[in-house]
Amino acid sequence: METTDIDREIREFLVRNFLFGRTEALRDDVSLLGNVIDSTGALELVAFLQDRFGITLEDEDMVPENMDSVRNVVTYVKRKLDSKA
Amino acid sequence: MCGIAGLLKFDGTQADPNMLGKMIATLGHRGPDASGIHVSGITGLAHARLSIIDLENGAQPMSTADGRLWITFNGEIFNYIELREKLIAKGHQFTTRSDTEVILHAYREYGQDCINYFNGQWSFAIWDAEERHLFLSRDRMGVRPLFYTQTASSFLFASEIKALLGCPEVPREIDPLGMDQVFTFWVSLPPRTVFKNIFQLPPGHSLVVTGNHLRDRQYWSPSYAPEEKVDAGDDRELAEGLLHLLRDATRIRLRSDVPVGSYLSGGIDSTLTTALVEKAAGNRLRSFSITFEDAEFDESSYQQEASSLLGTQHSSMCCSGSDIARVFPEVIRNIEQPVVRTAPAPMFLLSQLVHESGFKVVLTGEGADELLGGYDIFKEAKIRRFWAQNPHSKWRPLLLKRMYPYLKDIQRQPTAQLKNFFRVAPADLVNPFFSHLLRWELTSKLKLLFSADFRAAIGKYDAIGELQDTLPSEFYSWSHFAQAQYLEAKYFLSGYLLSSQGDRMAMAHSVEGRYPFLDYRVVDFAANVPANLKMKVLNEKYLLKRACEGIVPASILHRTKQPYRAPDSRCFFNTAAPTYVEELLSPCVIRRHGIFDGHAVSTLVSKFRAGRASSVKDDMALVGLLSTQLLASQFINQ
């Protein structure tokens, strides 16, 4: 899967699921955690990533380096997919 | 308890008794036993009475014998017996046994400072014919409501906003800034409300109205000892002192000429209150509670245990999600502001049970969590600060799991994930709102639902900045724990718990709540208890638990705290959901009220219909949306 496709799907999910469909509210310069995803909503993101991309998220993967921006999430997913391939 | 209303004309015309009659008629639920109107020239007072003290002679509006002072009063002055004796010693003569007459004589004796002598819960207006002004006052903690507005010709006040909106001169408009506050703090910041040009008298304030001139004065506000001046204190002595005050606060709150019952939730606060009531009253007490079909919210086993051990005659009502959805429109009509939780609805049903059982007065444990450190938000702030002292510690963030044990979605997450959300930036530590920022930021996300026009009306308004501007200078000398307590006690307690979940839900069925923990002597005492005795390490309400030993059953004393919650948005999405839900969330009604964005609403609603909504934010968004739509339908675009 191409990085651009992963990026698009993750953005669409975040906007639809956490921002009531408001595309303009997803900004690349603010942290995802806390600003877009709330503490109880995080499980939804995990479920989405696992279901949509067929990857397994380990507890220790859930660190800001993997989760705190769209770019970080995309990079993380891409890495997991590549390691599966 | 009662409903009050009144007006003062400043355009040279006379007060209209028909207008007063219309206003007070909207408050019949607050006072179904009798109603009265008094008009004298430019002013008029109205009263709907729920007879509780001096059933024969307590009718209102009431005047002094010389007719100089007239009063309309909602509430109770619990120390009226002692005050009456004091005033008699000073030469005052009484014709009734009511606390209403005590207020009149106290005003005559002490002037506007009379309120400093009152121990109670009140809102009242006194027309002083000699001074030609109205004197209005609201109790220290904001137990009883008081709203007002000004038109081109009149000043008008009432216990509830609906009485003001009944006047043709009063515009029916939503205030976008008030809405912005509710969608940040869960409450509007007094004096603002969600209705444009309709204000609430803040708790602990009085207001003098002379012609069209208003003079507002704060006579009381929660205050805490500076951090360096708080003594370590002796647990045992402080616990005894607290219990002594609570006993007396309960004793004077049993003053009533009708039977008094109690709410028994199954927690420490209401169990202690019930135990103290039973001991003071000396007879078998009636207690009432809510149970839930859904085990996630139900505390019936603790309620039954407490009732059985205390020997009360207990009645409960089982609340289902369908019940909540069914009564929600009526709940919002009484609350008169949006809510992001459905928790008031079961309280509405509970007061119905109390009313149908023939009771007018109940004592409850409200206030203990704010005053004595019971809330998870205090624990959350404490853990986060502790972690921030050593951010690289491996074990400190493990404490995050100790927060919110009843929230499954928090407990299911690995600590690594929780760290992402509860991490502390260096700037956070010096933020005066450290304890509450996460909650406010989460609630603020719901504003994404607002329409473009509504957001434009809000503009660059900064609700948190406004709140910061109102902080007293001493705030910065208080402990972090006290700062968090202040925010809860000053805003959330009066604006939500005592109003949306308290006065409005009880008075909807003509029931008066009384709160021993909110006796100002208890409040002042608690304010000076060291923070580490309120929450000892992570043991919440430690000092209160010490005070309860031997009174509250050990099983309740040491149980895991479960805050009162109710099923939220799931109530509105099932096959039995009332038709109003679909109607209010439909694109045309969304467009008609203009507050929310149609696309954002449909995105949220689709998520619920697909069964994908599960977060706290989604729950709050749906309840906030639906309650706002109800408010607009009931009060604005009827």
List keywords for this structure.
heterodimer; A: 85 residues; mainly alpha; Non-ribosomal Peptide Synthetase Peptidyl Carrier Protein, Chain A; 4 helices; 55% helix; 0% strand; B: 638 residues; alpha+beta; Glutamine Phosphoribosylpyrophosphate, subunit 1, domain 1; Rossmann fold; 3 domains; six-stranded antiparallel beta sheet; 28 helices; 17 strands; 15% strand
Write up what this structure looks like:
The complex is a heterodimer of chains A (85) and B (638). Chain A has four helices and no strands. By secondary structure, chain A is mainly alpha-helical. Chain A has one domain: Non-ribosomal Peptide Synthetase Peptidyl Carrier Protein, Chain A, CATH 1.10.1200. Chain B has 638 residues and is of the alpha+beta class. Chain B has three domains: 2-218, Glutamine Phosphoribosylpyrophosphate, subunit 1, domain 1, CATH 3.60.20; 235-371 and 510-557, HUPs (Rossmann fold, 3-Layer(aba) Sandwich), CATH 3.40.50; 442-467 and 568-638, no CATH class. In chain B, the strands form three sheets. Chain B has a six-stranded antiparallel β-sheet. The longest helix of chain B has 21 residues, at 616-636. The mean pLDDT of chain B is 94. At the A-B interface, helix 1 and helix 2 of A face helix 14, helix 16, helix 27 and helix 28 of B.
Low-confidence stretches of chain B: none
The CATH topology of the largest domain in chain B comes to Glutamine Phosphoribosylpyrophosphate, subunit 1, domain 1
**What assembly state would you assign to the polypeptide chains in this entry?**
heterodimer
The total of helices of chain B stands at: 28
Which class do the helix and strand fractions of chain A yield? mainly alpha
